[in-house]
Design brief:
The chain is built from 21 helices and 8 strands. The termini are far apart. The longest helix is centred in the N-terminal third of the chain and has 39 residues. Strand 7 and strand 8 form a beta hairpin. Helix 3 crosses helix 6, helix 6 crosses helix 17 and helix 14 packs across helix 16. It is an alpha/beta fold and 595 residues long. The radius of gyration is 27 Å and the shape is globular.
């Protein structure tokens, strides 16, 4: 098992023992040994450094892997030019089709808030309140959020390199889009040559749902990209198993597991890929990176432990008691069919990719059962993609039991992206296999993909996806940005995060009654140049009558001055300035209003 003369640290048996110890330790600490409060503390104050260490080590392994590349393996100059033009065309189309803005209500603001604390304080936490204290904006009342940490970490890294600005989150996704298509091109080329590479770029580049994530600040595009990365690294490892490729694959899997909630599933196919590599090589390869990998996954287990004990973060509806249930399956399957097969402009789907992918996936399943190819003779790239694709299908199957996986909901359709990845590469693999019998098939598939570009890209500019619930916030922020500069406090009826991210103190309107005395003092001492109040009115009759939301009403004694209002959809959003607060008088002590 170990070469003659190997030292203790070099012996495979010793490393296997340490790997087992690390695994047992990670399982015990992650699921059994620590209290929820301890787990929360460790993740809040230590997860950043674990992700930093993992990412730095991964970059080092990728650099070593790049140095080992063989000359002449890459595409020629003409092919690179053609691929670059196609990727650049889709990238420009994606970033120009919609404004850079948050897409999924509050989720993306939370991710940016976590990145804020990672950048300034190295804490994995989301802020609730924040104030400027002696020229430094401090986040207060921070809590551990449920969302994975890799994407906020990357945003914080961009902040570290270029300075803090909320736009960095959008810049990161805009940069990830061509990288993602480039990885798809690489995998397509490994599977079927240049035509396969161009086919998968056409299919994915014309997918409106993927393109719309290029101008948002969500984690979906990074997760999609990391699935491709792990598939590519898995193929590289199976082609030539060695410690460098193993380390790059393992660290990539750890980072993928921190890209989305369900992405810990991809650890399973990576484990199978590693075992197959050992079997093909005839010996066990275990780098020190692989030995400590279970400990690098510990923050994921601890964060999930905190989530399981923090019911308010589940965000369930009033009639729901659990996040996963068989009761959700029928409705989610119906919405998935409606979304995937829709011809309506309101959905960011690709009917061409759905039909081609479903046919290809069905044929590939039949082909595998009929031929039963030998594992030893299996192509490394195809085998790695097959195993990762199985995990992606398992991912899609799992979220069908989730309470909020309605693909026809514009804010939940992003959950279909891993399925679309599988469908796109199924078309490439099926086309390459059948193309040996029918040489004209690859050209026919590329032509059909070009048709998908024409028919699907018109949905890139469909506003429903990015305007759901966000328009009010965007209008409020534009209005405030146009006012004279100066310190101000925002009393918002939505979330405080959009304001805190631009270092503007904010509290919820509902807290006004609790802190009325402070607001009165802030007006009196002119701590803020102005205190703005955001309120919303809903229609109450067909005759045009409106009523303010009960939760938006200010207490008695609050005097406001209307500054602006705007109708957005059926609702009216109003912005006012707080000009006076009159506190209830104590017995025998009248208290005048303070302006």
């Amino acid at each position: 098992m170990s070469p003659p003369g190997a030292t203790l640290l070099q012996r495979t048996e010793f490393r296997l023992a340490l790997f087992g110890l690390a695994g047992v330790t990670a399982v015990y600490l992650g699921f059994i040994g620590l209290k929820v409060e301890t787990a929360e503390f460790l993740v809040k104050h230590g997860a950043y450094y674990v992700v930093l260490l993992t990412f730095a080590a991964w970059c080092a392994q990728l650099w070593r892997l790049w140095a080992q590349r063989q000359p002449g393996d890459g595409p020629g100059r003409r092919e690179l030019l053609l691929a670059g033009l196609a990727i650049a065309l889709f990238s420009v189309m994606a970033v120009n089709s919609e404004p850079f803005r948050s897409k999924v209500l509050y989720d993306e603001f939370v991710l940016q808030s976590t990145a804020y604390n990672m950048h300034y304080f190295r804490d994995t936490a989301t802020m609730v309140r924040g104030y400027d204290i002696l020229g430094t904006f401090l986040s207060l009342d921070n809590y551990l959020d449920k969302r994975p940490n890799f994407y906020p970490f990357l945003i914080s890294l961009v902040h570290d390199l270029t300075g803090y600005r909320p736009a960095n989150a959008y810049a990161l996704n805009a940069a990830l889009f061509p990288v993602t298509l480039g990885l798809a091109y690489y995998l397509g080329r490994r599977l079927a040559g240049q035509w396969g590479a161009m086919l998968v770029v056409l299919l994915l580049g014309s997918l409106p749902l993927l393109g719309q994530n290029a101008t948002g600040s969500g984690m979906e595009l990074l997760n999609f990209c990391m699935i491709l990365v792990v598939a590519a690294l898995g193929g590289a490892y199976l082609r030539s198993p060695d410690p460098t490729r193993l380390s790059a694959l393992v660290l990539g899997a750890v980072l993928l597991a921190q890209s989305r909630y369900e992405s810990a599933l991809y650890v399973l196919p990576v484990a199978v890929i590693i075992l197959v590599g050992w079997w093909k090589r005839g010996e066990i390869i275990l780098s020190w990176t692989a030995v400590v990998a279970p400990l690098l996954l510990l923050p994921i287990a601890l964060q999930n432990k905190v989530l399981n004990a923090t019911r308010w973060q589940w965000e369930l509806k009033e009639d729901q008691n659990t996040r996963f249930s068989l009761d959700y399956l029928a409705g989610n399957l119906h919405s998935a069919r409606e979304f995937l097969l829709s011809t309506s402009q309101r959905y960011a789907n690709s009917l061409t990719l759905t039909i081609l992918g479903a046919l290809a996936l069905g044929w590939l399943g039949w082909h595998l059962v009929r031929r039963r190819p030998s594992l030893r003779d299996a192509d490394g790239d195809r085998l790695a993609l097959f195993l990762v694709g199985l995990a992606a299908l398992g991912n899609t199957g799992l979220i069908m039991f989730y309470y909020w996986s309605n693909f026809s909901d514009p804010m939940a359709s992003r959950f279909s992206l891993p399925l679309y990845l599988v469908l796109a590469f199924a078309v490439v693999v099926a086309g390459a296999t059948l193309g040996r019998r029918w040489p004209a098939l690859p050209a026919l598939l590329v032509g059909t993909a070009l048709l998908a570009v024409v028919t699907a890209t018109s949905r890139f500019a469909e506003p429903l996806y990015s305007h759901t619930g966000i328009d009010e916030i965007e209008w409020e922020r534009r209005f405030v940005a146009a006012r004279p500069p100066g310190p101000r406090l925002i009393l918002t009826n939505k979330s405080t995060l959009p304001w805190l991210l631009i270092k503007t103190p904010s509290i919820l309107v509902g807290r006004a009654n609790i802190v009325a005395d402070r607001l009165q003092a802030q007006l009196q001492d002119r701590i803020f140049t102005e205190i703005l109040v955001m309120q919303t009115f809903h229609p109450t009759s067909p005759d045009g009558d409106y009523q303010m939301n009960l939760s938006d009403r200010l207490p008695k004694g609050f005097e406001i001055e209307l500054l602006a209002e705007r109708r957005l959809g059926t609702r009216i959003t109003r912005i006012s300035r707080l000009v006076a607060v009159t506190l209830p008088a104590a017995k025998g002590e009248p208290v005048p209003a303070t302006r």
